Amino acid sequence: MYVVRTSSKFYRSRLQHVLQTWISLASQHTYFVTDKLLPSVSHDHLILTDKICGQERHAMNTLCCKTAHDFKLFHRHLTNYDWFCHFDDDQYVNSRRLEEYLSTLDSNRPYYIGRNSWAKTLDRRKQPFPYSFWFATLGAGVCLSKPLVHLLQPYTQNIAQFVDGCLKENYHDDIYLGFLIFGYLNITLTKNYRFHSHLEKDFYNDKQKFLEIFNEQITFGFRLPNYCPVFLPNLYDSRSDRYRLRSMHCLLNPHIDECQMRMHKLVLNVTKSFR
């Protein structure tokens, strides 16, 4: 199950780009946490937050409130899926590689998977649980197995409970989630460095390295002007593919008919330029 956190104000600048790319391959299993109804998204595949979470702000209580809605969706669909993943609207997800990776793990065990947000553990001193712990940044994507979602039910069964926990501990949503999983359930983060957020300053800097590894990566963060693969061949016009996501989508999924057509056209144009 893929849950994408977004906002109506980002529909044109972010969401429509992922709807046209990776989500098109996983739309049946993709759900949205958002403030208002969205164009091109079925009403039964989203959950609205505007009345409960209030004004869209990048504040602790708002983010925790929206993440609590992830779990509302997770619990609602607990019998339908083995894996439950959170992504933001400024991420491209290589769903083929994600599903290949998850298939190598035992979905009957409690797994907390993602990219550690900091280079070292969070050094917690206060009670309860005065221990250091790893947490995964939600901005790179986080996946939980069904047993872990089930174990988290006592702490995530209602919105106010999760938000109050964040505020009490003074932790943002991804830190609080990591704290719950380690402190209360004694489960550590399974790190995966093929998950990437837009905060990785060097990810798109080395063109040669990126081209060597991008096919194996699971998530890609994007944001203009520097955090997107602008060096990729542009299979679409710049206006419709400002982040090069559609071009990257075709390079990752060359079996798609439209992508075959676009790449064939590019090859022809390059060939003509050398004549």
Protein architecture, described:
The protein is of the alpha/beta class and 275 residues long. The protein has two domains: 2-195, Spore Coat Polysaccharide Biosynthesis Protein SpsA, Chain A (Alpha-Beta Complex), CATH 3.90.550.50; 232-274, no CATH class. Helix content is 37%, strand content 12%. It has eleven helices and nine strands. It has a seven-stranded mixed sheet with strand order 3-2-1-4-7-6-8. The chain has a two-stranded antiparallel ribbon with strand order 5-9. Helix 1 links the parallel strand 1 (2-5) and strand 2 (30-34). The radius of gyration is 19 Å and the shape is globular. It is found in: Endomembrane system; Membrane. Residues 3-223 form the Fringe-like glycosyltransferase domain.
* Helical run tally: 11
CATH class of the largest domain: Alpha Beta
Q: How does the overall form come out from the CA principal axes?
A: globular
Order of helices and strands: EHEEHHEEHEEHHHHEHEHH
Strand content: 5-15%
- The poorly predicted ranges are none
CATH A-level architecture of the largest domain: Alpha-Beta Complex
State the secondary-structure class: alpha/beta
Query: How many β-strand stretches?
Result: 9
User: Which bin fits the share of residues in helices?
Assistant: 25-40%
Overall mean pLDDT stands at: 94
Query: In total, how many domains does the architecture comprise?
Result: 2
CATH topology of the largest domain: Spore Coat Polysaccharide Biosynthesis Protein SpsA, Chain A
Radius of gyration: 19 Å
Major sheet attributes = 7 strands, mixed
Head-to-tail CA distance between termini: 49 Å
Domain Fringe-like glycosyltransferase: 3-223
Keywords: Glycosyltransferase, Membrane, Signal-anchor, Transferase, Transmembrane, Transmembrane helix
Subcellular location: Endomembrane system; Membrane
Pfam families: Fringe
